[in-house]
Design goal:
This protein is mainly beta and 150 residues long. The protein is built from one helix and nine strands. The protein has two domains: 37 residues; 95 residues, Immunoglobulin-like, CATH 2.60.40. The chain has a three-stranded antiparallel sheet. The chain is elongated, with a radius of gyration of 29 Å.
Length: 150
């Protein structure tokens, strides 16, 4: 082992290699290892059940409004704690048309209320109650936070 002085920097050399290089490699590996361990595990696919979905009908002179409500239940045991935003897409069974907006449901302790409103113009002819199939676009966990007000 030899010691070389260059200005105010002292470099220790082991068999021609700088110990600083070894430390840099070790620190790099440590950072990669620690950040890899800090990432969340991949989430399992979540399953949901929609129960008691029904429409209330409101007819007006020029349109018909259907207000749908139902109970969305998480089937995954991991989703029984905490809160989640679940995003759904509605597809009309008769026309295969997809609703233009996503339906967002807040799940708390595994359940949440799905509320959905759709309008049909009477100028299109008789309006039958819609029937939908639902597709889960995705979900995200909600983290607790504190709010302060004056």
């Amino acid at each position: 082992m030899s010691r070389t002085l260059r200005g105010s920097i002292v470099q220790l050399r082991l068999e021609g290699k700088s110990i600083v290089n070894y430390l840099a490699v070790i620190l790099s590996l440590l950072v990669v290892f620690l950040t890899g361990c800090a990432h969340e595990k991949p989430r399992e696919a979540a399953n949901f059940e929609l129960k008691n979905f029904r429409f209330d009908v409101e007819e007006k002179e020029y349109n018909v409004t259907y207000r749908g409500k139902g109970l969305l239940l998480a089937q995954s045991p991991a989703m029984q704690d905490g809160s989640y935003f679940v995003f759904l897409k509605a597809r009309d069974k008769h026309t295969s048309q997809v609703a233009s907006e996503l339906v967002a449901v807040i799940l708390t302790k595994g359940e949440g209320e799905l509320a959905f409103t759709i309008f049909y113009g009477k100028s299109q002819g008789p309006v039958a109650p819609p029937e939908f199939t639902w597709e889960v676009v995705g979900y995200v966990p909600l983290l607790p936070a504190t709010i302060f007000s004056n």
